[in-house]
Design goal:
The structure is a homodimer. Chain A contains 12 helices and 6 strands. Chain A is an alpha/beta fold. Chain A folds into 2 domains: 143 residues, Rossmann fold (3-Layer(aba) Sandwich), CATH 3.40.50; 86 residues, Orthogonal Bundle (DNA polymerase, domain 1). Chain A has a 6-stranded parallel β-sheet, sandwiched between helices. In chain A, strand 4, helix 11 and strand 5 form a beta-alpha-beta unit. In chain A, helix 7 runs parallel beside helix 12. The longest helix of chain A has 15 residues. The radius of gyration of chain A is 18 Å and the shape is globular.
């Protein structure tokens, strides 16, 4: 890790707790629009489940690169219909505000403190599939001290496409091996390593709730393995 | 200005004092490489003079969009030759470091304090022709508290091309009239206003040295006119 100049981070699940936050944000909307019987956590999971298939249409070229705020909004309407709620009756203003639930995700408890330490030694930025407006609003609300907002929209490619990692190194004007990805997801790290990036695994064993079965530990010998962001900062000498 | 959600700023001249900073950074390089007779401020001016023509080649499509760090480096070699110095003899490592003079520009004395106030109420970001790596390094060194790094590289267009302004609003997912440009240059503000942006003029009467003859005051009735960034923060209720 001696050559590393910048660490870029997966955000959903790694830096922020999307599941509890989207559930919390969705609860009052569900209550207002006839969805009192729907479990907000199940709703959050259902919304998130449409995330990968929506991006896949962009990855395969079926549709041009489309920012995640728009995919989230399309998916919201689909999930509402799946739960027997009519988006048209809910109305534009409510749907737009509901969709911004993804702008109001809370960081894991130690994430901001850990990132603040890491920022002393490294350039830190998101390498998220979230778009610039989403990441900027989230960071501003949560106090995440990014040096820059990078990610899929800057690269015009969704992870795990190689371009997402390689173009991020390119805009930072550093070599891939001078860039490290920090993520709670082995698949993301594998794709980054294949592009020549350094890799840091941060364990998030409850991202998907109490019964999480995936990504409970590292699947490979990543360059760093940390229990959380404070541990990552310590292991990187910050 | 009531609808404004984000203020983006010109950087060279508006936020940072490029002339004195590039002169200071260039002085030891000139001394080391046989340029003791060259006035560092005149050298900074000569380097900056090649800025617009280099970007113009990208604007007109003569060459593809090329990030400013690369244009600065090409221009450095040209300016050195103009002053009778041989870039080849100076060598790659020294040239690369000299070029990073543009990463080490100091803010005007009140700029960081003013931006810190503005950040409470607005999203703040650079809308500079400087590239992402340059703006990120500069902000990190100088403590400029940007919410995101936007600008020419994100828009893939150099100001005053309309795309530079319009795509910046687009990535922030706001209307052009919800975006304000802050700049010390009337031409930049005119181009922004033509795209529907709000405009804030900040006076920088010594950007070009003690004999500056341009941009000493507003050329039009901009939405806000401020004497500096503290004054701008005050006038916008921050």
């Amino acid at each position: 890790m001696d050559n590393v100049k910048a660490i870029v981070f997966d955000v959903f699940g790694t830096v922020v707790d999307w599941r509890n936050s989207v559930a919390r944000e969705s609860a009052p909307f569900l209550a207002r629009h006839g969805g009192t019987g729907i479990d907000p956590h199940a709703f959050a999971d259902a919304w998130r489940k449409r995330y990968q298939p929506a991006m896949e249409e962009c990855r395969t070229g079926k549709r041009p690169f489309t920012r995640l705020d728009i995919l989230h909004r399309e998916n919201l309407e689909l999930v509402l219909k799946d739960h027997g709620l009519d988006p048209v009756r809910i109305g534009e203003a409510e749907l737009a505000e509901w969709n911004r639930a993804w702008h109001r995700l809370d960081p894991w408890p130690e994430a901001v403190a850990g990132l603040t330490r890491l920022k002393r030694k490294f350039i830190i930025a998101p390498l998220s599939n979230g778009n610039i407006a989403l990441m900027t609003a989230m960071a501003k609300r949560a106090g995440i001290p990014w040096d820059a907002i990078l990610g899929a929209e800057v690269a015009q490619a969704y992870k795990p496409q190689p371009e997402a990692y390689l173009r991020t190194a390119e805009v930072l004007m550093i070599r891939p091996d001078e860039l490290c990805l920090g993520a709670a997801h082995n698949g993301d790290l594998k794709a980054a390593r294949n592009c020549g990036l350094k890799t840091a695994f941060v364990t998030r064993p409850t991202e998907h709730g109490p019964d999480q079965a995936t990504d409970l530990g590292p699947s490979e010998a990543w360059d760093v393995v940390a229990s959380d962001f404070q541990d990552l900062a310590r292991k990187l000498g910050c």
